[in-house]
Design goal:
The structure holds 2 protein chains of 2 kinds.
Chain A (H helix, E strand, L loop, with lengths): L2 H29 L1 H4 L3 E2 L2 E2 H31 L9
Antiparallel strand pairs in A: 1-2
Helix pairs in contact in A: 1-3
Chain B lengths: L9 H24 L4 H22 L5 H6 L6 H12 L2 H14 L5 H24 L4 H9 L2 H34 L3 H16 L3 H30 L6 H4 L1 H14 L6 H7 L19 H18 L3 H4 L8 H19 L2 H13 L12 H5 L2 H8 L3 E3 L13 E3 L3 H9 L4 H39 L5 H24 L5 H15 L1 H9 L5 H22 L18 H18 L5 H10 L13
The chains are: A mainly alpha, B mainly alpha.
C-alpha cells in the first residue's frame, strides 16, 4: 500500500471514531432522555443538563481532540502543513 | 502603536477595541445616572456599534479577487473561529433562542444540540478538504469536482434557495431591533438594517465581512453574557449560573406543578383576541416528554439541524479563508467553542427569566397575582401596548394564571434585564448585541449568494474573460441587488423568525449534503449522479414541505416528519438517487480521480489556483 493510501486509511479510521462519539453524544443519550432525566447532575436533571451544556461541551472537546489526532496522523506520513501555507 | 503586519497585530487591535467598547458601556451608565433618557441610550448603543463596523468595512476595502472572495486566505485560526461564530449565531439565536427554550423547554433544546453537533460533520467530513481544494465558493467545488456547468448551476440554485430563506429572517430581525432602538417604524428599520449590512460588506467582500464579524462577535457575546451573570449574582442564584442553577431548574418544576401546565384551546385563544405570535407556557421546562415518538422528534430535529449545518454555504466558505488545511480544522473547533459560550447560556437565561415571572415569592413574579396589579407594572404596560404581551382572563377570577399570560418569544431576551430591574444601559447593550448578531449573519449570507452568482454564474459561465475590475463590479452590484430584494421581502413581514430559519437547513441538506461529502469520500461519484441527486433531493424535499406544511396543503406528517424536518426526506432521496445514478454511469475519468486523491492530502498546493 502506498504512503497515501495508508494515510487515507488512518484518516478514515479517525473520522469513524469521531462520528461514533458524535453519535453517542448527539443521539444515543437522547434516545434514553426519559430514563436518564431521573438522575441528577449538579442539581440538574441529567437529560436537561446534557442538551443545555453537556453534549455541547462534549462536541467542543471532541473537535479539539480530533483535530490534534489528525495532525499527528498527517505528521506521521509526512503530509503536515505549516501554520502558513 | 501598531508596527508590522496587520495580522500579527490582531490581538492588540481587537484588545483595544474590546477595551474601548467596555469604556463606552461605562460612559453610558454614567450618562444614565446623570439623567440621560433611555431612548437616547438605545440610539447611542446602536449608532456607536454600527458606525464602528462601517469604519472596519471601509478600512478593509480591496480591489483584489482573492481578498474579496476568501479574505486573502490569511485569517488566523482563533479569529476565524470568532468570525464564524458571529456568522453562525443569527438574530434568531440571539433574540429567539432563549424565548424558544422559555416556551418549549427540553423539547425545544433539540435545536441547541443540532446547531452545535453539526460542526463535527463540518470538521471531519468537509472543511479541511474544501480548504485544500482552494475554491472560492461552494458551487465552485461542485462544479470542479464533478465538472460541467449544469452541476455548478444546480449547486448555485440550492445555495441561493437555502441562503435566501435564511437572509430574509435576518434582515427582518435587524429591522425589528433597529426599529425598537431608534424609535422608527419597522419598514424603515429594515432599510436602515440593510444599509448597515452593505456598509460592512460592499467594499471589502469577504475580508471586510471577516473583520466586522470578529468585532460583532465581541459585542454580541458581551451583550448576552453580562445580563445573565448580573441577574444571577444579584438574585443570589450563584456567581457562576451555568454550574449553579440546578436548584432553580428544580424549583421551576415545582412551580409548574403548582400552577398547572394547561394548553389553551385554539378557539379560546381566538375568542380572547390574543395577538398573533404570542404564546403561553404549556410545556415542562426540564421534563422529558414520554414515549418513543417524542424521543424520535427530538433526535430527528437535531439530525436535520446538524446535517443542515454541514451543508450551509455561508458557514463552509468561512473555512476557505484560513492559511492552511490544519488551520481550517482547528478553526472549526474554535468556532464551536465560541458558539458554545452563547448556546450554553441561553437555557440559563430562560431559566432565570421564567423564575422571575413565575416565582410568587419574588417581587418580580406576576403569575398568581391579581391581574389589575400586574397590568399596572411599567414593563407589562409597555409590552402589552406594543402587542408583545397579552393577558386573557379565561376563568374570570381576576388572578393571573400561567396559561393566561401570553408573550412573544423575543421578549425574553429583550426584556429580562428590565424585568430584573437592571439599569437601562443593559437593555441598550442587548439591543446592540441583537443587532450585531443579525447583521453578521445577514452579511455572511448576502455575500455567499452574491459571490456565488458573480463567480459561478457570471465569471464561470457568462463571461470567463472578464477582468478583475469587471468581476468585482459585478460582485458588488449583485450584493446590493440581493440585499435590496431580501429587505423588500422582509418588509412585507411574511415569515416568523424560526420557521424560516429551520427551513434553510432543510433546503441545504436536501440538495447539497451528499453531493459535497461524496465528492470527497467516494471517488466513484459521478457528474450525472450529483446532478440527479441535487435535483431529486431538492425537488422531493420541497414537494414534501408543500405536502405537509399547514399553510400549504397541510397533510398529516409521515412518522412525525413535519415541516421543520423535511430535509430528512430530501437528503435520503438525494443519497439514493445519487448512488444509483453514479453506479449506472461510467466512473469518473482519471484526472478527476487524481484530483480527489490530491484533495485528501493536507499538504501541497491547492487544486484551484490562488487566483482563478
Amino acid at each position: 500500500m502506498s504512503n497515501r493510501s495508508k494515510h487515507w486509511e488512518k484518516t478514515k479510521g479517525q473520522m469513524i471514531i469521531t462520528l461514533l462519539l458524535w453519535f453517542f453524544f448527539g443521539y444515543v443519550i437522547f434516545m434514553f432522555g426519559e430514563t436518564i432525566n431521573t438522575v441528577s447532575f449538579l442539581g440538574y436533571p441529567l437529560a436537561y443538563y446534557m442538551c443545555a451544556q453537556g453534549s455541547l461541551l462534549a462536541f467542543v472537546v471532541i473537535l479539539f481532540w480530533s483535530a490534534n489526532k489528525q495532525e499527528k496522523i498527517d505528521e506521521e506520513f509526512g503530509f503536515a502543513t505549516g501554520e502558513d501555507e | 502603536m501598531f508596527k508590522g503586519k496587520f495580522i500579527n497585530n490582531l490581538p492588540k487591535i481587537y484588545g483595544t477595541y474590546t477595551g474601548g467598547f467596555l469604556i463606552f458601556i461605562i460612559l453610558m451608565s454614567i450618562a444614565e445616572q446623570a439623567g440621560m433618557e433611555a431612548k437616547t441610550i438605545g440610539i447611542m448603543f446602536v449608532a456607536f456599534t454600527v458606525s464602528i463596523y462601517a469604519v472596519i468595512g471601509w478600512l478593509s476595502r480591496t480591489i483584489e479577487v482573492d481578498a474579496y472572495y476568501v479574505a486573502g486566505r490569511s485569517v488566523p485560526t482563533v479569529f476565524n473561529g470568532m468570525a464564524t461564530a458571529a456568522d453562525w449565531m443569527s438574530g434568531a439565536s440571539f433574540v429567539a433562542m432563549a424565548g424558544g427554550i422559555y416556551f418549549g423547554g427540553y423539547t425545544y433544546m433539540a435545536f441547541l444540540v443540532g446547531w452545535t453537533g453539526g460542526y463535527i460533520l463540518v470538521s471531519s467530513l468537509l472543511a479541511p478538504y474544501l480548504r485544500k481544494f482552494g475554491c472560492y465558493t461552494v458551487p465552485d467545488f461542485i462544479g470542479t469536482r464533478y465538472g460541467g456547468n449544469l452541476s455548478r448551476f444546480c449547486a448555485v440554485v440550492v445555495l441561493t434557495l437555502a441562503s435566501f430563506t435564511y437572509v430574509t429572517a435576518q434582515i427582518n430581525a435587524t429591522g425589528t431591533i433597529a426599529a425598537r432602538a431608534l424609535g422608527i417604524p419597522f419598514e424603515l428599520g429594515v432599510w436602515v438594517g440593510l444599509f448597515s449590512i452593505l456598509l460592512c460588506s460592499m467594499l471589502g467582500g469577504m475580508r471586510a465581512v471577516t473583520w466586522t464579524q470578529v468585532a460583532q462577535y465581541i459585542v454580541l457575546i458581551t451583550a448576552y453574557l453580562l445580563p445573565i451573570f448580573w441577574i444571577s449574582n444579584r438574585g443570589g442564584y450563584g456567581f457562576f449560573p451555568h454550574l449553579m442553577l440546578g436548584e432553580e431548574v428544580a424549583r421551576l418544576g415545582e412551580l409548574e406543578a403548582q400552577f398547572g401546565l394547561v394548553k389553551n384551546a385554539a378557539a379560546d385563544i381566538a375568542a380572547a383576541g390574543v395577538p398573533g405570535g404570542l404564546k403561553s407556557i404549556s410545556l415542562p421546562h426540564s421534563g422529558v416528554p414520554a414515549g418513543g415518538m417524542a424521543a424520535w422528534k427530538f433526535i430527528s430535529l437535531a439530525l436535520c439541524m446538524m446535517v443542515g449545518t454541514a451543508s450551509l454555504p455561508h458557514i463552509l466558505m468561512r473555512y476557505f479563508t484560513t492559511p492552511s488545511v490544519k488551520a481550517a480544522r482547528k478553526s472549526v473547533a474554535w468556532s464551536l467553542f465560541f458558539i458554545f459560550l452563547l448556546y450554553s447560556s441561553a437555557p440559563m437565561l430562560a431559566t432565570l427569566s421564567k423564575l422571575q415571572l413565575m416565582d410568587p415569592n419574588l417581587a418580580t413574579g406576576i403569575i398568581g397575582k391579581p391581574i389589575a396589579d400586574v397590568m399596572s407594572i411599567d414593563w407589562v404596560t409597555a409590552w402589552t401596548a406594543q402587542k408583545q404581551a397579552f393577558i386573557a382572563d379565561f376563568n374570570g377570577d381576576g388572578i393571573l394564571q400561567l396559561n393566561e399570560w401570553f408573550m412573544r418569544g423575543d421578549v425574553v431576551v429583550l426584556s429580562t434585564p428590565e424585568v430584573a430591574g437592571l439599569p437601562y444601559v443593559i437593555t441598550g447593550l442587548v439591543a446592540a448585541g441583537g443587532m450585531a448578531a443579525a447583521m453578521s449573519t445577514a452579511d455572511g449570507l448576502v455575500l455567499a449568494i452574491a459571490n456565488s452568482l458573480s463567480h459561478d454564474i457570471y465569471f464561470k459561465m457568462v463571461d470567463p474573460k472578464a477582468d478583475v475590475r469587471k468581476r468585482l463590479i459585478v460582485a458588488r452590484s449583485l450584493l446590493v441587488v440581493i440585499g435590496g430584494f431580501a429587505a423588500y421581502i422582509a418588509s412585507m413581514r411574511i415569515t416568523s423568525i424560526l420557521g424560516a430559519v429551520a427551513w434553510a437547513f432543510d433546503f441545504a441538506m436536501s440538495g447539497l449534503f451528499f453531493p459535497l461529502i461524496l465528492g470527497v469520500w467516494w471517488k466513484r461519484a459521478t457528474r450525472q449522479g450529483a446532478i440527479a441527486g441535487m435535483i431529486a433531493g431538492l425537488g422531493s424535499g420541497t414537494a414534501y414541505l408543500i405536502y405537509v406544511y399547514p399553510k400549504f396543503m397541510g397533510n398529516p406528517a409521515w412518522l412525525g416528519i413535519d415541516h421543520l424536518r423535511f430535509g430528512i426526506i430530501g437528503a435520503s432521496v438525494c443519497l439514493v438517487v445519487m448512488v444509483v445514478v453514479s453506479l449506472m454511469t461510467p466512473e469518473p475519468d482519471e484526472a478527476t480521480q487524481k484530483m480527489v486523491d490530491e484533495l485528501r492530502v493536507p499538504s501541497g498546493k491547492t487544486i484551484l489556483g490562488r487566483q482563478h
